[in-house]
Amino acid sequence: MSLYVMKFGGSSVGDTERMQRVARRVVEKQDEGHQCVVVVSAMGDTTDDLIDQSKLLNENPPAREMDMLMTTGEQISMSLLAMSIHNLGREAVSYTGWQAGFRTEAVHGKARINDISPIRVNKALEEGKIVIVAGFQGMTEEGEITTLGRGGSDTTAVALAAAIQADVCEIYTDVDGIYSTDPRVVKCARKLNEISYDEMLELANLGAAVLHPRAVEYAKHNNVKLVVRSSFNYNEGTVVKEEASMEQGAVVSGIAFDKNVARISILGVSDYPGVLARVFGALAQEGIDVDIIVQSGVQNGEADFSFTIARHESQRALSVIEGIRTEVPFREVTSEVNLVKVSIVGAGMVSHPGVAAQMFDVISKQDVSIKMVSTSEIKVSCVIEGSNLEGVVQALHTAYGLDTNQQASVGGPQVRR
Amino acid sequence: MSLYVMKFGGSSVGDTERMQRVARRVVEKQDEGHQCVVVVSAMGDTTDDLIDQSKLLNENPPAREMDMLMTTGEQISMSLLAMSIHNLGREAVSYTGWQAGFRTEAVHGKARINDISPIRVNKALEEGKIVIVAGFQGMTEEGEITTLGRGGSDTTAVALAAAIQADVCEIYTDVDGIYSTDPRVVKCARKLNEISYDEMLELANLGAAVLHPRAVEYAKHNNVKLVVRSSFNYNEGTVVKEEASMEQGAVVSGIAFDKNVARISILGVSDYPGVLARVFGALAQEGIDVDIIVQSGVQNGEADFSFTIARHESQRALSVIEGIRTEVPFREVTSEVNLVKVSIVGAGMVSHPGVAAQMFDVISKQDVSIKMVSTSEIKVSCVIEGSNLEGVVQALHTAYGLDTNQQASVGGPQVRR
């Protein structure tokens, strides 16, 4: 007998029929001899409908009242799911965030969980009941209702799994698991059987729709075994856990990319201490996130440097830089907006030098020039022209042995370098 | 400065426009220098929609989960109203039943309030905020969410008014107040300026749609001054309070009627001790409510008696009586289903003998025969043929000086006897 936390997102409980499917799925798990705690999101469009309604009354509603409003979405879906499970002849009991013992900081709209006292959840489990918990919500010490913000229900599931020492936290969604890259770009993208927490975090911009980075961090910190799988079929899904038992020989697990990249270059900057701090301090003050930063060597007391930001921020960034020209004199500032960032991600690359060199080789053979490079322990990123994205991702996917058919024929991941 | 509890029902907050009208109304009250606590029901059809959704998943859902589901309705309307009031530049804060301190017995679907600890409500009032409280709901000692059942939001308002020692509890609805009779039957029905708790209770089947009897009892018990008025205009409404200051000279305040009456007569029953207890015990066991009971004198050791029940219960009642024939022998049982009960209600009749006699006179002048009579301190009821209902109600309404035009011309209620 294992203890499962099963999280179902809004699309999995989007209508009555889907709700019944989830109920059957949970009952099947109990039939296999397991204990089940289910975390649910609001049904389908409920959250958006509530937001629309609020906007009609107040364009800028107080966050406290928005939390009061939004938390009804999960309360509706959890009670309906409980009824649907009762209809299958099983005992089920639903709890709001505060009833399940979620205590959060006193912030509305994006509260962090302070601690969880799952007394009632544990008691109901002992009584043989299926427990259903509202995702995304908690309560402050003062009894105020809060929400956890984006990815909240994933975080609820992971945090609850840690608190009740569940054996597995299953995240049910509308895809089969985590893929080696976006299947819309690479047709033979491969579903991964396993992936490490760190890799999952680096693949975030591919996987964010499936599993929120915050939940992954929480899982890593509390060593919660995650399984990402489909609520529409019985395929095995992707296990997210510590890297110890990663797939043999797989140096690169996936190819991530970000289509929304602009580069700003500041040329001929007088080199003196604090110049970088001044530039990036000014950008941070405006809330502009900077990703990759590259500085050239100093020549004749002048340096060039470049950085990447989200495309839609480029005009604002240029204004900020013009605004500090008197303090930080430079010769010229330029911007390029049609760029993308392609990354190879893999826990195995720590112990495999030459992975970056192979990546550059693959890209150059596509006749594509690399504009910027950035590396971390388990990731190498290259910034290239946006028009080259699909060809480069496909070539890297093939080069690192991630294509499905290739896997099937050679029996295991192959890495060429 | 007075402290007001203002209760708005589902139709008063049925859509965005009405919600805004309620917000303005509350702000106007604050502008007059008063403190305001608002109790809201779920918006328009929300409750029915939720019930419909639940029925699709479970024809007979567990009451606990129904309470979990239903209480979201008020939580949505209270938070939207808070946003709408904020939009008018005022501070408002909404509380669920449990946050407002409503503790109930551990029964789902129709819990009674055990006590109220309105600590947060009082604190928010002290801070100058408008407080909004979800009607119809509370929490048990064990932290389970409960609902108060039919008329729940009225009861919430009255109980809260008692707990915070409000000066007035205003019940906003879609009619101008309590009428002397149903305006659909008598065109010149008169809106009452004042009425006593007891009269209101006796008029319940006219006024139930406006004010639930349970809330009236609670108000009487705690001496809460009620005002029933329209949320769509500024007319003064009807004050419900102790009878001390009832309208001068008004012996009869209103004409109530019940269209749903059947009479069962059991003829030739052997008279012995306990026979009535046996008959009505058997009916009670089947959950059949009996209203008026009339027993004739005993002749030759045999008695006849009759009683009234709701029309749709008559077939079941006949079966019950046939079922006890061996224990309680009788000659014959008959039933009449097309009857109605007409009642005159008035606190003044205690000190005015002859009111009943006048009623019989008015009815006989309509050529209508009276089948049964029942009296209480402030009410006289006659059971008559259903086809005579409208004529009799109109005649009584006129006879007791309740018609509007008559009032206008003679300057005050007149009672002829």
From TrEMBL, chains A, B:
GO terms for biological process: diaminopimelate biosynthetic process; homoserine biosynthetic process; lysine biosynthetic process via diaminopimelate; threonine biosynthetic process. The keyword Repeat applies. Pathway: Amino-acid biosynthesis; L-methionine biosynthesis via de novo pathway; L-homoserine from L-aspartate: step 1/3; Amino-acid biosynthesis; L-threonine biosynthesis; L-threonine from L-aspartate: step 1/5; Amino-acid biosynthesis; L-lysine biosynthesis via DAP pathway; (S)-tetrahydrodipicolinate from L-aspartate: step 1/4. Pfam families: AA_kinase, ACT_9. One of its GO terms (cellular component) is cytosol. Gene3D superfamilies: Acetylglutamate kinase-like, VC0802-like. This is Aspartokinase.
